[in-house]
Amino acid sequence: MKNQFLLLSLLMFCLASVGNAQVTKIKDAGPDAKRINFTVLGDGYTAGEMTDFAADATNITNAFFNEPPFTNYTNFFNVHRINVVSAESGADHPSTDRGTDHPELAVNTAFDASFHWAGSAHRLLYCSSFKVSQQVAANYPASDQELVVVNTPFYGGGGGGLSVFSTAADANDLALHETGHSFMRLADEYDSGNNSERANITSQANTGNVKWKDWIGTNGVGEFARNSLTFKPVNGECMMEFLNRGFCSVCQEQTIESIYQKVSPLETTTPATANVDYNNADLDFSITSVKPIPNTLSYEWELDGNQIATGIENVTITSTQITRSTHTLLVRVSDNTTISKKNTNYVFTYEWTINNTSLPLEWVAFTARANGKINRLDWTIAEPDGSSHFLVERSTIGTEWTTIDRVAFTGAETYDYNDEFPAPGNNLYRIRAVDFDGTLTLSPIREVRNVSRNYFKVYPSVTSGPVNCEVFTEGNRTSVVSVVAADGRVVMENTLATDGGWTRHQVDLSALAPGIYTVRVVAGKEVHTQQVIRQ
Q: In 3D, which of 82, 111, 109, 78 has the Cα closest to residue 22?
């Protein structure tokens, strides 16, 4: 606890010593919370040189967003300038290895910028990360990447955490190159002595397995020796090897990867909350998106997994689409840019749950069962106020449904229905409750398996006299049994009264001439026929 107290006290002292600095938004593409925020700070600018710093920061910003792919994704970035005053101009140069072109110099600056940073090469110009982080924490803590421009005309820069660069003639390209290290995590494509694996550097010698294999043969991309241990994607044609070049395809792709690791193109969603109540009125849903230039975003909308719209940023869900207690609405935004071949990484979604608070009823129970040769459906409901009627629907495959009947709403809580002629095989059933305002509420699905349509039996099929007929009927019913000759004449006919279920009747053909006859039974809505042979 004592050590923690001392550390907190030290941090508070450091922050108190920083003071407030003027922060100016010099590129405004949208809300900071929805953008990548670059912050430009200056070192070695005195109070009288703040105008120079402002001009340098603007020039660097303009250069950035005139360079692909930053040009294409300019809408994803804001840039802020923090005015930090140094006591003296310039940067430290601790040796004279450059001769009279760059004399030894020690100056008092805000961030202690120096060439030969940490005893390295002359051109490695860097500054105190701690002092920069203090200023950022005190004045603009939302910063995603800090760019430090050092007020010295001598060539130098450094990257990896901060992006640090001088105001030399190549300042703009220096800024891009060093930000390639810091923001995109790219390596130098010249032999810098650092052989760490990066998006644009590999030790993999097999071209078929190299990390940029999808780019091989496109835009000059191949596998080129960087040194005896590592390889690079292009030979001398990338900003990460020579200034005054653009970024190669592999480095541009890594830029897109870096952008989408920090920000989503989905900017706003309306409604803003993920749970939305439906109250008998159409519901409007919309998004706004941060668009590349040109716009390579695609838009897809799905309701409960079914696509309902594409290519638009808004949809309306109507009452006819609200058929159950909850629905899921999903919008999917994808970037199909050709700058990258990793487009599967650039898919962003948002989901709303639609709660139907105006359901006309609640399904308490619903059953379906075989009952003899019919299928019987029973259902119980609660809170039926406002209901009009029920539609009984049947399917054999679960995706195509047929309305087989309508059942009137009586105000009761329990209902039943007999499907007298189910389809052969398996039968799926659901009930669609219809409210007076058109609101629909679906029941769960129930199944009756292995339905047989054999309502009628005739045997034997070859006889010298009697033939047995068996007929299945539901309830009290009259059936007519006829025998029809080959020429269409009705040669025998009997009327049967049944009490429901199976009824057996015998027809004697012994008085008829030998030949082929048709036994026909009419039972309710069904007509059954079968041929028999009289010997």
A: 82
Using CA atoms, how far apart are residues 498 and 472, in angstroms rounded to an integer? 9
Most confident of 90-94, 96-100, 408-412: 90-94
On the CB side of 448, CA atoms within 13 Å amount to 26
Residue 178 neighbours by CB under 8 Å, 6+ apart: 147, 157, 158, 159, 163, 164, 165
Q: With helix as H, strand as E and coil as C, how does 169-233 read?
A: CCHHHHHHHHHHHHCCCCCCCCCCCCCCCECCEECCCCHHHCCCHHHCCCCCCCCEECCCCCEEC
Task: Flag whether the pTM goes above 0.70.
Answer: no
pLDDT tens by residue, 93-126: 987 665 557 788 899 999 999 999 987 888 899 9
CA 381 vs. chain centroid, Å, equals 37
- Helix/strand/coil for 535: coil
Cα 80 to Cα 61, 105, 112, 489, distances in angstroms: 10, 30, 21, 100
**Where residue 459 falls among pLDDT bands split at 50, 70, 90?**
confident
